[in-house]
Amino acid sequence: xxxxxxxxxxxxxxxxxxxxxxxxxxxxxxxxxxxxxxxxxxxxxxxxxxxxxxxxxxxxxxxxxxxxxxxxxxxxxxxxxxxxxxxxxxxxxxxxxxxxxxxxxxxxxxxxxxxxxxxxxxxxxxxxxxxxxxxxxxxxxxxxxxxxxxxxxxxxxxxxxxxxxxxxxxxxxxxxxxxxxxxxxxxxxxxxxxxxxxxxxxxxxxxxxxxxxxxxxxxxxxxxxxxxxxxxxxxxxxxxxxxxxxxxxxxxxxxxxxxxxxxxxxxxxxxxxxxxxxxxxxxxxxxxxxxxxxxxxxxxxxxxxxxxxxxxxxxxxxxxxxxxxxxxxxxxxxxxxxxxxxxxxxxxxxxxxxxxxxxxxxxxxxxxxxxxxxxxxxxxxxxxxxxxxxxxxxxxxxxxxxxxxxxxxxxxxxxxxxxxxxx
Length: 423
Ligand SMILES: *Cc1c(COP(=O)(O)O)cnc(C)c1O
Description:
Layout: H1 9-16, E1 23-27, H2 28-41, E2 49-53, H3 60-68, E3 72-75, H4 78-86, E4 94-97, H5 103-111, E5 115-118, H6 123-130, E6 136-140, E7 147-149, E8 152-155, H7 166-178, E9 183-187, H8 199-218, E10 221-226, H9 244-259, E11 268-271, H10 275-278, E12 282-293, E13 297-301, H11 310-314, E14 320-322, E15 332-337, E16 346-353, E17 361-364, E18 385-389, E19 395-399, H12 404-408, H13 415-421
Helix pairs in contact: 2-9, 4-5, 7-8, 8-9
Pyridoxal-5'-phosphate (PLP) binds next to helix 10.
């Protein structure tokens, strides 16, 4: 499938006159339509709720849009909890799925009335000690071994640090009930960024059967099953798109097969999607600063891996469109790079693209999740701005770019530093 950016060169130029590149831009229309499709695909389940994984794109304007579409927030840290609270999202609209949890974080989640998803058996006593046991508690499951779909190995839960074994789940439930918990949730995350439509249905099957066993052995009331994140997107043109209708229908079949006959047809389905909710609705927009021709042909952008880490970190593919050259033949082969003093700072290696020139504007696709949020300050590079392309076609700055003063803000104001600042 051809990948088409959601902005044209003309639109980009208008925005650049206001906000210089590089910046991440998000497509409000695409975000809302996608969220509505998700809710429709799971509309058969009365309690269905998506808890957006805040870590993917922690911007309050985007969180607000998702809130308006019915989403809660999945937080993993104190700061993300505070961010959700600032957006007016609290109570059971917040899922707290953390690991190696600090006391302060656990207390904040409890004080906000969030659903707490315990990563380990020992966290039952930890939670009781630092915050008390709430009425509803979720426990994260790790089945161990290899997780495969058909002949394909998806991931290796046996090597994953998350969750507890089934034996520990049973003990945790019993202990929690003895300490006053009345209802339970079950959570697992077994494969990341998968476009196999069978992933959620398979995971649902595993968790529904576990829910029935846990109910039978402990008598616990299971209120929800949390399928977590992991539904992937088509980063590359040759990849399939996730079919959310087929995924919702696949989960419904497992629900009818396993939970309904067990008299558990009132269980709510929760998701904690990050990537699927926002990745396709973000672009990193950058300008070509330099080109050089040595052993290979290089195009250097004003963005770098500090603005989008996935290619450098995972060798991830991100499609690149040269705006205004959408219809030109891709008859050149370039490495598209940033300016870090790191040779892995390449957005693309050996990528067929149209002939490029200094001043060209590129859209790097699918940066709406795990893009800006994974940014860092290596080489004194600063985090970029974030811009919202609104439904009416206008744009709004939803986070300004960092300045050197932001970079210096965490130095102590020692006399030495004052001297430096004052020249
Ligand atoms: C990262 C994460 C998610 C979101 O994952 P995506 O791949 O963005 O869907 C959801 N839940 C938990 C616990 C996570 O760690």
